[in-house]
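seq as requested:
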Amino acid sequence: MAGQISPTRSALLASKASLKTASGGADLLKRKRDALIGEFFALVKDALAAREQLAGVSKGAYTSLFGAKAWDSPEAVESLSLAGSSDYQIDMQIENLYGVKVPKINVPERAQASNFSPINVGARTIQASTDFGGVMEAIIKVAGTETKLRRIGEEIKKTSRRVNALEQVVIPGIQDDIRFIRSVLDQREREAGFTQKKIKAKIEAKSKAAREAIAATSHGSAAD
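struct tokens:
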């Protein structure tokens, strides 16, 4: 960059202003990255807890399902599962976390009543239906936490790349420009000072010669 910049005082001031802006931007991005890292590790605990909950309720639900199929027959259970299917709506909002848009999912309250008539339906089938409702809730929690975790992780990587670009490329480049401009300006000042000394020496030499000429003329007139 140094070869493309004009070595003037105005360019020096502009480069200093750019350096201040870049340094301030790097500091802000590092603070944002640190805050996101804190959120990331806090969310990891929630994600692990959601996964553990999903594993637990899934194990119980499949145990209930196997029992229901054994007592009420697989055909009866599958028929009831198709007859009892319904839409499952969730409430999802978008939050702004340090400039990152992340989902906030509210798990709806489960209906306690079954979608099918309990007449001629075994208790194990009803229990399996209830348990799989818990599995659905657990899946939604896992999806919400892991989606949020992934987006925060991506933003941390993006922010780190920006910080590295500023600290390793932009800021050193501006510093090189400043050093180049200062070296040229210092060289110009030294050359200007040397030129002034030469001019001053010539003026003094001419003045001395003029004074000597005047003095010689005065002595010659006195002798006549």
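The first helix runs from residue 9 to 72.
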